[in-house]
Amino acid sequence: MCASNKKFMLELPLKIILTEDGASNFISHKKRLLRFRLADNVDEYGIYMNKFSPQSIQNMLLLDYISKIEMSMPEFASSRQEIMDLSKIIVYSLLYKRFDRDIYAAILQCECIRTYNRKNPAHIIDERTKMSEKQLRTILITKDQAINSTRKQILDPVWKEICENKDYSIEEKNVYMLMSEKFMNRLSLMNWYVMTLFQKSDGFDEMITAIRNVLSSYMEKSRVAEYISVMLMELALGNENTNLRKEAKNMFPNEEDINMLLMEPESRAKIVKELQRKKVLVSVSWKLGGSSMAIGTQGRLQLTIYNKNDEFQEVKDNIEEKAAADTNKRSLVDFYRDMPEGEEGTDLGLYYLSYLDDACKKVNVKFESMVNQFASSDLTVMNLIFNF
Length: 388
What we know:
This protein has helices at 20-28, 54-62, 80-108, 111-119, 133-140, 144-164, 170-185, 189-197, 204-221, 223-251, 258-263, 265-278, 313-319, 332-337, 346-362; strands at 14-18, 34-37, 43-49, 66-73, 282-288, 300-308, 327-330, 366-374, 379-387. The protein is an alpha+beta fold and 388 residues long. Strand 2 (34-37) and strand 3 (43-49) form a beta hairpin.
């Protein structure tokens, strides 16, 4: 997790679907939008990136410019770290946005704000209060000392608790201290404006405590980002392995040891190239729940893995008769447990899934998983849905 080990630029083939605000911004800057056919056969407009900085993606996410990110490749193993980094960037960005909103909500509940609102009914500070960025920057330009003092008042006890925790390694302590700073750095100008406005008021300590409590809860939630990225890779690599093995049997029908064949770099490269030529791809998408105006969906993330795969028809037939829609839908746990004998990675997949489920429950993140299998098209669609 050390920043020095991460690439400044990531190289992945991204289709980025824009929100209305995002599309308007790109169009206003004379950027042409592209029309994409996504893995679910829906056409969308957006932009394409194959080399990008993590910060550029995060900035677009924080501005609510992105509604969905999708990538399709025949092989994921060689890009493992880049994909996991991208997944964590997406989850962290969602958490940063939720954190800022929850901080503001917590501040509004403090007694000093309630007292102020009772005394100033014409200038109430609540969730409907709006001030422009320019106006806020003008006000805060002389408030550096107050902001730094408040930041220190919030963070010092948090850092002390981290440093005194004997269960953390030195690296973990550094990571958590850095994470707490990152969350504070993402606070909006509106939050800092309200904090500096009431810094000398009676009851300001209550506000600091409320902020610190929200910060601690989000530092705990941030751990889930790592588990999500690991689960994503497990699912992507499992689907990739299915495709590789199937194509290897087609290309090398006389080869008895397929596993050994896939471990040989030259043979594997030939198989991957053939999958690319045939457009046999595994697709992964991250769908953000909604814009800041969509009440109740701001903290939703849907992670989907698509693969055209006919290996599980027997399992599908055994579970239930084909429905009118020719679709079977079940949990990811059932999917793993019902896989045919001999399929690789079943135990590992269940292990990761159980670990992710436990991690989400501990930090009050709602998590559900499901698999849709469309017999008519041999398409397997795996969904991981999170509500932070």
